[in-house]
Amino acid sequence: MKLKLTERISIKKEEPKVYEAMFFAEKQIAGFGLDKKLVELVKIRASQLNGCGYCLDKHCRDARESGETEQRLHTLAAWRETPFFTEQEQAALQLTEEVTYISKEGVKAETYHSVVALFGEQGFAQLLFLILTINNWNRIAIATHMMPEVTVSQE
After folding, report:
1. pLDDT higher than 50, residue 138
2. Phi first, then psi: what are they for 55, rounded to 5°?
3. C-alpha 41 chain-centroid distance
4. CA-to-CA distance for 82 and 79, rounded, in angstroms?
5. Is CATH 1.20.1290.10 correct for 15-142?
6. Distances in whole angstroms, Cα of residue 32 to Cα of each of 28, 125, 131, 151
């Protein structure tokens, strides 16, 4: 039996100022100068961990538009088990997992120092805001049952 999820309230309609603040944060993050592929990998990985179908659909499309390969997208969930990701990407993905699952162990000192060594202190702050923002979007999308648009036949 397949459950039909229906969208709930429109958070944009109910709290437009806060919703716009989220988009303002996205604009600021886009201006950081982080590699677009890295940004999308972080967004996809957090969305995988949180189980957000809406954000996974959106950010996989955005990643493809940025030139990301299918091979890397298909193996992102097992990034540690592949040779496809750079040292910087691995550090950012590790940070993404630790921040997304913050209640488990927090952010380990090793992860913090690795990210700072590779990105600098400002880069750490930028990655942290990127991760925090996508986690917020995931929670909004999941709580309100935001659905991706069907673009292919579901037969």
Report:
1. yes
2. -70, -35
3. 7
4. 6
5. yes
6. 7, 10, 13, 32
